[in-house]
Amino acid sequence: MLCLRAIRPFSWRVFHFRPFSFEPLISQMNNCTDEEQIFGLIEKNKSLLSEKQVGCALSMLWQFQKQKTSSVKNVDCVRNHPQFLTLCNLATTKMGFMSDSTLVNVLYIIQQFGIEAHDSLVEALVTEAWRRLERFDISVLSKFSSCLADQHLHYSPLMGKIADIVNRNLENIQDLRSLSVLMVSISSLISQRFQEKLVNKAELLFDTMDSSQVNTARRIVQFLRNIRYRYYPLLERCNKVFLSNMNHLDLDSISKILSLYYSLQFHSFEFILMTKKRLTEMIPLFDHPASCVKLFVALGPMAGPEEKKQLKSTILLMSEELTGQQALAVMGAMEEMESRNSRLIKKITSILHKHLDNYKPVELLRITQALTFLHFQSKELFVRLRELLLSYLKVSVIPSEISILVYALSMLPSAHLDEVRMSQIEAVLPQCDLHDLNIFAASVLRCIQYDHMYLDNIPGKQLKVLQKLDHYGHQRLQECKSLNLLWEEVKSLKGDWFADSLLEETVVTLQRLMDEINYINVAGIASFISRTNYLSTSLLDKIASVVLQQIEKIHPFAILAIILPFSTLNYDPPQWDEFFGTCIQHLNSYLSVLDPLVLVFLGYSLATLQYFPEDLLKTIFNIKFLARLDSQLELICSSLNMTVQFRLMELNRAVCLECPEYQIPWFHDRFCQQHYNKDFECILDKRRNPLPYGSHNTTLEKLPKIHLESNTQIAGSRLPPGAEKIALEFLDSRAFCRNIPHLKGKSAMKKRHLEILGYHVIQAVIGND
């Protein structure tokens, strides 16, 4: 009886303090409409909350944040609320009772609310999850890997353990969404073989994915970016997902996809066209600095004149509210847009100056490059930049960071480095890869040029460092035993030092390792060779052989890169007809899919080799195609725009002169009158005396009417009996291959066309000076 009396008051007290509803607590949480209601329930029930209810409360708090736009999110207010601390304390005491999914979800949510990785709760949750790791199902494992990635633990033993679990269970994984998260998380520490297994698995599961899963497709592209693998079959399929969901993509998603495509150098005309339309519709919707900057960066480089003007005006209006990072993003976009808006440049630069002390070395380099490109002059800013770069340099010990700092310093108006800094460079050279060595060389050469010009002196230390750079560059090439490792280092190399000091040794190394050329790396190697202008017949023959043997594994998007060195260097491999025929046949089904720019460059490249596939040419010289090309020309920078127009003109001329049977009209008269007048010509009579310039002349920019005759003659203006037309072309070293006096494709085609027009061509070689 006494026991019952003791229980009754306690029961009443419990009943009195419970929520004013008999509804289960989790149901009440699910019915809450804001954070305060959740916190009210926590405060009234904190002594009774179970691990499930703790997990539910945190889930609801995060759900409310996800429903808000960036301008009204209140993460800090929630994190600092006393009842949020109560939830964290309860999570600490109850994590041992949580299910696997609740445990990882709690970790994920508290990280989203900005709880630091060194917080005791985060550490305890990670430790508990590690203990259970082997029993996690794929969805829980993927979320946990994402939590570790958010803590920058990409190279940790724990992430390595997750990679091992994925590798052991890959065959049984059927959920592409979870797999895509894991692929991104473990991408930094897996072997090339494992990378290929993941790519194949993702491709296998792609058809099981709902076509609306944009985030899954984006993560697959992110994985390919992380492992630096431009795998066209997956990129193409992901691109189709983005295109089919364009109306549902927000600014943040579009910005991420554009950034990934840029990193992978993957070009999709359809995506850019639809993206431009979608982003243009968003211009009136944003008035918050963060969103406006993101829109400026994404839309600016592809926008038309009116949109650019509107975007710049918006940024100017809110420039006072921009953070240092936002100003940096705007400056980068202005560089890409080739903007010369002096008012905006001055305003953004003043913000950069104000935040200069807060930027990292790589950001200081970006600022220096942008200011140089935009021709901005400010002695005060450049002096401060130099001070900051030198202060970083004095304490830096990482070769890649030192190379960045030295490169930025060499771009400043006073590109001088003293002996102490030169000694610092010299000390790290043995640790450098070819990429860093190339950056150091470019920097030292700039400093030598500056000292010679302004100080009338070249310190011996600089010349000594240059010799050391040559030594370590050659040593690294000679010791290289893997084509893939070599390729990672040389694929972005350019500049005078590389061309003069390392190019020949690089080609020798490529020849030594060329048995490792395969369908995966063949396009990259070919593209590199075309940039070097170095004719190695053995390498080009190997490329042609690999293509013929493995064409079914090579994506049509890669064909242009493969053909380019043969065109540039004017070289026909053995079985050239079979090689080019195989490439074109592989492309035919993709002619309607490839970007207009790619088709123009492809047609031009083949024309230099006297190869004129009819299907390709009829696709290009078509009203609908040319309209699509005009649309794409509006989206690209002025320099590339002009290059494309020149290539189309040269292709048009080649087809008219060499394939009159295709009956493709010449339509570049006006373009040539405006841009093209470089032929020096004269007419000699039968006694070899010059005749007056007149209607007898028919140059490459003004083609006569042509028709096909038995000997493919040109029906044009007639010359006096015995007269001869002479075309004198002056060539410098750029018209020839770098290593041998072999005429490159463009100059060879020009000579051929002049001869078709009836000229006797004299090509005179002049010095570069």
Describe this structure in words.
With 769 residues, the protein is mainly α. Helix content is 63%, strand content 3%. It has 38 helices and 4 strands. It has a 4-stranded mixed β-sheet with strand order 2-1-3-4. β1 (680-684) and β2 form a beta hairpin. α13 (214-226) packs antiparallel against α14 (232-244) and α33 (596-608) packs across α36 (638-658). The radius of gyration is 32 Å and the shape is globular.
Helices and strands in order:
Elements: H1 2-17, H2 25-30, H3 35-45, H4 51-66, H5 75-79, H6 82-94, H7 100-112, H8 120-132, H9 138-150, H10 157-169, H11 176-186, H12 192-205, H13 214-226, H14 232-244, H15 251-264, H16 269-282, H17 289-299, H18 305-317, H19 324-337, H20 342-354, H21 361-373, H22 379-395, H23 399-411, H24 419-428, H25 434-455, H26 460-479, H27 483-490, H28 496-512, H29 522-532, H30 537-550, H31 559-568, H32 576-587, H33 596-608, H34 614-620, H35 623-633, H36 638-658, H37 669-675, E1 680-684, E2 690-691, E3 724-731, H38 745-756, E4 759-765
Parallel strand pairs: 3-4
Antiparallel strand pairs: 1-2, 1-3
Helix pairs in contact: 3-6, 4-6, 4-7, 7-8, 7-9, 9-11, 11-13, 13-14, 13-15, 15-17, 17-18, 17-19, 19-20, 19-21, 21-23, 22-23, 23-25, 24-26, 25-26, 26-28, 29-31, 30-32, 31-33, 33-36
Keywords: Mitochondrion
GO molecular function: RNA binding
Domain RAP: 726-769
